[in-house]
Amino acid sequence: MPDIAPTAPPLLAVRGLAFARNEQPVFGPLDFDVDAGEALLVQGDNGAGKTTLLRVLAGLLRADAGTIVIDGQPARASLRARAISYLGHLPALKADLTALENLQFLCGLHGRRRGQRPDDAFGIVGLGGHQDTLLRQLSAGQKKRLSLARLWLAPAPLWLLDEPYANLDLEGINLVNRMVQAHLRDGGAALLTTHGAYAAPPVRTRMLVLGRAQPASAGAE
Ligand SMILES: Nc1ncnc2c1ncn2[C@@H]1O[C@H](COP(=O)(O)OP(=O)(O)OP(=O)(O)O)[C@@H](O)[C@H]1O
């Protein structure tokens, strides 16, 4: 008998996923997989449903049809909480806490990767010296960098990144790409929405184009 090694399930498997508002379809039905070590670039025009898709995957909106399976398990709330880190348009940060207090608070909620401390993340995202700055005194780009620090600290393997490049300077854009590369190298996966042409990180990437009459997903390197 040949020795056939069992193959790992995709980190994310989506089948027949559809979402409608007021009976008007926003997207779907969609079928796609994302493997560990892979990025999925979600593209489409304004209003095509990119943010909605990420919010459905994160469990913030309920799908009308379809299944979401994470690492071989149905995506129940407790699994999503462990497995998914969602970076949305609005940073989930508290205006009257300092930058460091925000990270400590979020690590308390979501846990943190082994060996990583909130203090260390400031240097990684280029916010060194801002630990004690109140969140409301940070610029939009600095807030985005703080959200990236939270993402960096989170232990979740599946990153859902909605416009992660927005408000960032060129160095910040490179930072996102380096973070995604390192995360994928560590066996994670990332879904990214973006309008930026520069924004495909140099990693194994699939494309998902929403809002067009064509197959929903196509593989790409
Ligand atoms: N809270 C809401 N209530 C009602 N309709 C909404 C709401 N949010 C989004 N929509 C509608 O759902 C559709 C998809 O919006 P979504 O934000 O997912 O698009 P998107 O592809 O992310 O767009 P963009 O590129 O502009 O960010 C749009 O037609 C939008 O008008």
Automatic annotation (TrEMBL):
**Per its UniProt entry, which superkingdom is the organism in?**
Bacteria
Q: Which UniProt keywords apply?
A: ATP-binding, Cytochrome c-type biogenesis, Membrane, Nucleotide-binding, Translocase, Transport
Note whether Membrane occurs among the keywords: yes
Which residues does the UniProt record annotate as the domain ABC transporter? 12-220
- Per the UniProt record, one Pfam family is ABC_tran
GO terms for MF: ATP binding
Protein's name according to its UniProt entry:
Heme ABC exporter ATP-binding protein CcmA
Q: Give the organism's phylogenetic lineage.
A: Bacteria, Pseudomonadati, Pseudomonadota, Gammaproteobacteria, Lysobacterales
